[in-house]
Automatic annotation (TrEMBL):
Residues 274-370 form the Hydroxymethylglutaryl-coenzyme A synthase C-terminal domain. Pfam families: HMG_CoA_synt_C, HMG_CoA_synt_N. It comes from the Bacteria. Belongs to the thiolase-like superfamily. HMG-CoA synthase family. GO terms for biological process: acetyl-CoA metabolic process. Keywords: Transferase. This is FabH-like condensation enzyme. The lineage of its organism: Bacteria, Bacillati, Actinomycetota, Actinomycetes, Kitasatosporales. Residues 84-175 form the Hydroxymethylglutaryl-coenzyme A synthase N-terminal domain. It comes from Streptomyces atroolivaceus.
Length: 416
């Protein structure tokens, strides 16, 4: 395959994900809601992250990005010129939550601060925009920080979408030193149109048309890849990507998308399952224990691939990003053993294991608070001490930013 682009590499220099402090097994959630247990296997999920009332999209973003920022020298931090958050969980119609993130990360004031929204596609839109800025050469040596951050605002009304909902953030530092993912510049395909497959019309709840969303995802996968193939010479879906990483609302949908693509390439029978196990399954380990991280989902899956132990040599990854409403992109890049080593430094798997296991009743106790997380109010107090019994069960808890409430409409935070 051949893609256009400059010789200088650009892409993801560092990647980290933060998936909260608590977790609930999918089986317990199914049992608590009285859902059909035979449908649990379709999700291909073992558990999901649960936000606590002291967590919100700002704390998730900061806690994901902080290790990346602290690893930089002062000179390197000063070269961050663009900071973008992508979210469906904005805290204001005007003020971007990026401004809070910028403050608590202690970044320099010579930055562009932006918040973007396009459902689960937003982070990829930001990544591609940042790479374009860096590759333009107008500010040699510059860096960009992109953070996908969200909270879940679903309850029993979401039915089978509730067990698949995730919580957390994925942070990516982008530069001309792409130690995690070197983007194939010029190798991309887009497909977008208007549809109401899911939406968040209120800060308190999501709506979803499950069937429409399923078909939109599969339609966009097919057509975004077709656009990619129209731009990239002699590409073969079955041959030219050593690994595949896709937006993962739940792993079962990724499996269905892979099967559809393979069949359209003329592959049938056991070869499809063998290919799925080899090229796709390593990317689904973390999503299967976190849930849908919205626009961070595809980057959680990338971290999963790199932490799985299968990347030991230079390999091309095909990535698919989808956001309801809808917009999508198929793109690609190169990873290698340094990519795996760079992500391993973050200890993502260890932190996921350290999350406190909670019961269904404990989940219900925090749920109503979480549903109010984004609702604008003049004053609100969140007392961390109320949740100390749960926090005490978090293993090896680092210092984190916590949400403490709202004062005169201004959100308040503290390190804990």
């Amino acid at each position: 395959m051949t893609a256009t682009g400059a010789e200088q590499a650009y892409g993801i220099e560092a990647l980290n994900v933060w998936c909260g402090l608590a977790r609930l097994t999918a089986a317990d959630l199914f049992a608590g809601r009285g859902l059909d247990p035979e449908r649990l296997d379709n999700l291909m999920m073992s558990e999901r992250s649960i936000g606590l009332p002291i967590e919100d999209p700002v704390t998730n973003a900061v806690n994901a990005a902080r290790p990346l920022i602290e690893a930089l020298s002062p000179e390197e931090r000063a070269r961050i010129e663009l900071v973008v958050t992508s979210t469906e969980s904005g805290v204001d119609y005007s003020k971007s939550l990026t401004s809070y993130v910028h403050k608590y990360l202690g970044l320099n004031r010579h930055c562009r601060l932006i918040e973007v929204k396009q459902a689960c596609f937003g982070a990829t839109a930001a990544v591609q925009t940042a790479v374009g800025y860096l590759a333009s050469g107008i500010s040699p040596g510059a860096k960009a920080l992109v953070i996908a951050t969200d909270v879940a605002v679903v309850d029993e009304k979401a039915e089978y979408s509730e067990p698949a909902a995730g919580h957390g953030a994925a942070a990516m530092l982008l530069s001309d030193r792409p130690r995690v993912l070197a983007m194939d510049l010029g190798a991309f395909g887009n497909y977008s149109y208007e549809t109401l497959d899911s939406a968040r019309p209120s800060p308190r709840f999501d709506i979803a048309d499950v069937d429409r969303s399923l078909f939109a995802y599969l339609d966009c996968l097919k057509n975004a890849y077709a656009d990619y193939a129209a731009r990239v010479t002699d590409v073969d879906f079955t041959r030219d990507f050593d690994h595949l990483v896709m937006h993962t609302p739940f792993a079962g949908l990724v499996k269905a998308g892979h099967r559809k693509m393979m069949r359209e390439q003329g592959v049938t029978g056991p070869r499809i399952d063998e290919d799925f196990a080899r090229r796709v399954a390593p990317s689904l380990i973390y999503p299967g224990s976190v849930g849908n991280l919205c626009s961070g989902s595809v980057y959680l899956a990338l971290a999963s691939l790199l932490d799985s132990g299968v990347v030991t040599a230079p390999s091309r990854v095909g990535l698919f990003s989808y956001g309801s409403g809808c917009s999508s992109e198929f793109f690609s890049g190169i990873v290698d053993e340094q990519s795996a080593a760079t992500v391993a430094e973050q200890g993502i798997g260890k932190r996921l294991e350290a999350r406190a296991r909670i019961t269904f009743d404990e989940y219900l106790a925090v749920l109503e608070h979480n549903l109010e997380c984004l609702v604008p109010v003049e004053n609100r107090t969140v007392d961390p001490a109320e949740w100390e019994p749960l926090l005490d069960r978090v293993g090896d808890r680092p210092e984190i930013l916590t949400f403490t409430g709202v004062k005169d409409y201004h959100r308040q935070y503290a390190w804990r």
